[in-house]
């Protein structure tokens, strides 16, 4: 007794299935590469820009301290502490 598959469907090689999907995607125009940047990556990029500005400011402050021209305004510091609730 011989048992045959219903509807005589032949199995497809899985690698061939992948090739067929790629060919269909190309035919539909979906074969183009695309780049998406996450919000986290954008924030990191912005923080790198501010890091350069921060380094410049730190260099200015170091120079003022070494020259003796750096003066702390106690009133400004006290107001900032009060705003933060410290």
Arithmetic mean of pLDDT: 81
Which spans have pLDDT < 50 for at least 5 consecutive residues?
none
- Report the portion of residues in β strands: under 5%
Q: What is the distance, rounded to the nearest whole angstrom, between the alpha carbons of the first and last residues?
A: 90 Å
Number of strands: 0
Give the SSE string: HHH
Instruction: Bin the helical content.
Output: 55-70%
Alpha plus pi helix count = 3
Structural class computed from helices and strand pairing:
mainly alpha
**What does the largest sheet look like?**
none
Shape: rod-shaped
Rg (CA only): 33 Å
GO biological process, one term: bacterial-type flagellum organization
Domain Anti-sigma-28 factor FlgM C-terminal: 33-82
Protein name: Negative regulator of flagellin synthesis
Organism: Aneurinibacillus danicus
Describe the fold and architecture:
- With 86 residues, the protein is mainly alpha-helical.
- It has a domain of 48 residues.
- The chain has three helices and no strands.
- The longest helix has 29 residues.
- The protein is rod-shaped.
List the helices and strands and how they pair.
Elements: H1 14-28, H2 39-67, H3 74-84
Domain Anti-sigma-28 factor FlgM C-terminal: 33-82
Family: Belongs to the FlgM family.
Region (Disordered): 1-22
């Amino acid at each position: 007794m011989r048992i045959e598959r219903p509807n005589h469907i032949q199995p497809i090689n899985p690698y061939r299935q992948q090739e067929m999907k790629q060919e269909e995607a190309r035919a539909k125009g979906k074969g183009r590469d695309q780049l998406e940047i996450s919000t986290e990556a954008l924030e990191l990029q912005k923080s790198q820009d501010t890091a350069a500005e921060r380094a410049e400011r730190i260099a200015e402050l170091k120079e003022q301290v070494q020259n003796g021209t750096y003066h702390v305004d106690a009133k400004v510091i006290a107001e900032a502490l009060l705003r933060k609730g410290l």
